[in-house]
Design goal:
The chain is of the alpha+beta class. It folds into 4 domains: 96 residues, 3-Layer(aba) Sandwich (Rossmann fold), CATH 3.40.50; 70 residues, ATP-grasp fold, A domain (Dna Ligase, domain 1, 2-Layer Sandwich); 128 residues, ATP-grasp fold, B domain (D-amino Acid Aminotransferase, Chain A, domain 1); 91 residues, 2-Layer Sandwich (D-amino Acid Aminotransferase, Chain A, domain 1). It has 11 helices and 19 strands. The strands form 5 sheets. A 4-stranded parallel beta sheet has the order 3-2-1-4, with helices on both faces. The chain has a 4-stranded antiparallel beta sheet with strand order 5-8-6-7, with helices on both faces. Helix 2 crosses helix 3.
Length: 423
C-alpha cells in the first residue's frame, strides 16, 4: 500500500496564499496539516488535533518546537512556509525534525540586505556598488564618493518599502532619516545599518526558481515593463515569458543562481530581482520564497502546473519536473499580473469598474484585497497593494495591453484619513 505524503504548511493568518497551496496539495494527492497564528477549521474524522497546531510566529524558537512536537505525534514529510513571514519558523521546525531545509545563516542572509550584499560581494556576484551607513556617519560624503544617483534602502524590509532614490548628495541625510522612521514604524531598529547603493539604470526583471538537488530550476522570468527609476520603486506589471534576448536571460539566471549559492541557500523556492543595464545583469536582491501575494497565479495558467504544485513536489522529494522532459507542461502562452498601486495614502472607499475590467479580452481575474474603510499607505511608507489584475494571451505584448486596459477601467476612490465618511 502506497502511503500518502503529508506536508505541514506554516500559514500566517494574514497571507493571501493559503488557498492556492491547499488546492495544489489536493491536485497532487498530498495530505495537509497546518501551523498558524489563528484558528482554522478542518473537517477531519480524526479530529482537529491531527490537522492543525496554533503557534506564535513571532516566537521563532517556541513555534519551531511546537511544530516539531506536533509532527512527531502526527508525522509529516516536509514543513513548508506559504510566504515570507512564515519562512523562519518553517525552517526551524524542519531543522528540529531532520527534514530538508536551508541553513539558518543562509535564511538570515536572505532577509538581511546588508548581509546579502556582503555575501555576494565576497562571492564576486555582479551587483551595484554599495556602502553600509550607521548613525553618525557622513552620509552625504559617502553617497558622493559612491556615485550619484544612489538608492537608500533599509536592511530588513521588503516589497520596496523604504527604498528611495536620491539624486543630490545634500538630500541624502534627510532621506536616510526618513528610512529610519519607516524602520521604526515597521517595528525594526531605527538605529540599525542602512544601505546606500549606486543606482543601476535599465529594465528590471524577476526570476522565480526552485533549488532542487543542487540545481537551479527556472520556473519563470518576469519582465517589469513599467520603468522603475524612482524616486520610489512601486512594482506594478509582471509579464512572462520575458522579451529579453535569450543570451541575456541565460546570464541573468546564472547571476541569480550564483547569488543563491553565495547566500548558502540549497533547497526550495527563490525569488530574485535583477537589473539589466547595457545587456548585463546586476543582482538586486533574492528571497528564499516564491513570488509574493497572489502573483504566483500568473506563473502558469490554462491547465499547466502551478508554482505551488512545483514547490510542494520539491518539498516532498519528488523533484521538480523540468520543462521539455515530458513530466511537466508549463504554460505555452503568455501571462501576467498587475499589482494595483496605491496612488496616495488615505482610506479606501471603493473600486468602481471591476466588471468592465474583468470584461477586457485576455483578463482572467480582478481581485481587490483591501476592504472599504481600511487605511491604505502609499510607498515608500506602505507595504501592500490594493489588489491584483491577471491576464493571459498569446503574446507578452497582448497581456501587457490587457492589464493596462483593465487598470484604466477601474475607478479607485481613496479619501483623506480626516475626511472619510466611512461609518
Amino acid at each position: 500500500m502506497v502511503s500518502v505524503p503529508r506536508v505541514l504548511l506554516v500559514v500566517p493568518s494574514t497571507t493571501y496564499r493559503a488557498a492556492d497551496f491547499l488546492q495544489a496539495a489536493a491536485t497532487l494527492g498530498i495530505d495537509v496539516a497546518v501551523a498558524t497564528d489563528a484558528a482554522l477549521a478542518f473537517k477531519d474524522p480524526l479530529g482537529d488535533q491531527t490537522r492543525s497546531v496554533k503557534v506564535c510566529l513571532e516566537d521563532l524558537e517556541g513555534a519551531g518546537k511546537a511544530i516539531a512536537e506536533f509532527a512527531r505525534r502526527f508525522p509529516v514529510d516536509a514543513v513548508l512556509a506559504v510566504d515570507d513571514r512564515a519562512g523562519a519558523v518553517a525552517n526551524a521546525a524542519a531543522s528540529l525534525l531532520g527534514l530538508p531545509h536551508n541553513p539558518l545563516e543562509a535564511l538570515v542572509a536572505s532577509r538581511d540586505k546588508v548581509a546579502m550584499r556582503i555575501a555576494c560581494a565576497r562571492a564576486g556576484v555582479g551587483q551595484p556598488g554599495f556602502e553600509v551607513v550607521r548613525p553618525g556617519d557622513d552620509v552625504s560624503t559617502i553617497a558622493g564618493a559612491l556615485g550619484l544617483p544612489c538608492v537608500v534602502k533599509p536592511a530588513m524590509l521588503s516589497a520596496s518599502r523604504g527604498v528611495i532614490r536620491v539624486d543630490r548628495a545634500e538630500d541624502v541625510p534627510r532621506t536616510v532619516e526618513r528610512v529610519r522612521k519607516i524602520l521604526s514604524s515597521a517595528g525594526e531598529d531605527p538605529s540599525g545599518p542602512v544601505l546606500i547603493e549606486r543606482f543601476v539604470p535599465g529594465a528590471e526583471i524577476a526570476i522565480d526558481g526552485i533549488l532542487d538537488q543542487g540545481s537551479f530550476v527556472t520556473v519563470a522570468i518576469f519582465d517589469k515593463p513599467d520603468p522603475l527609476d524612482g524616486p520610489y520603486f512601486e512594482e506594478t506589471i509582471y509579464v512572462t515569458p520575458s522579451r529579453l534576448e535569450l543570451c541575456v536571460q541565460k546570464r541573468a539566471i546564472e547571476v541569480a543562481h550564483l547569488a543563491a549559492i553565495a547566500l548558502g541557500l540549497s533547497h526550495g523556492p527563490v525569488h530574485a530581482e535583477l537589473r539589466i543595464s547595457a545587456g548585463k545583469p546586476y543582482f538586486i536582491e533574492l528571497a528564499a520564497r516564491s513570488i509574493g501575494g497572489l502573483c504566483s497565479r500568473s506563473v502558469a495558467q490554462g491547465g499547466a502546473w502551478t508554482l505551488e504544485e512545483l514547490i510542494l513536489a520539491n518539498a516532498i522529494g519528488r523533484g521538480v519536473p523540468r520543462p521539455g522532459k515530458g513530466a511537466i507542461q508549463l504554460a505555452s502562452d503568455a501571462s501576467g499580473v498587475m499589482m494595483i498601486p496605491i496612488e496616495h495614502s488615505g482610506v479606501f472607499e471603493s473600486a468602481d469598474g471591476i466588471a468592465a475590467a474583468r470584461a477586457v479580452p485576455g483578463v482572467t481575474g480582478v481581485t481587490i484585497t483591501v476592504h472599504r474603510g481600511q487605511p491604505v499607505v502609499a510607498l515608500p511608507e506602505g507595504d501592500r497593494y490594493l489588489g491584483f489584475i491577471f491576464a493571459r494571451g498569446s503574446t507578452p505584448e497582448g497581456v501587457e495591453r490587457a492589464l493596462r486596459e483593465a487598470h484604466a477601467a477601474l475607478g479607485v476612490r481613496i479619501t483623506d484619513l480626516h475626511s472619510s465618511n466611512v461609518e
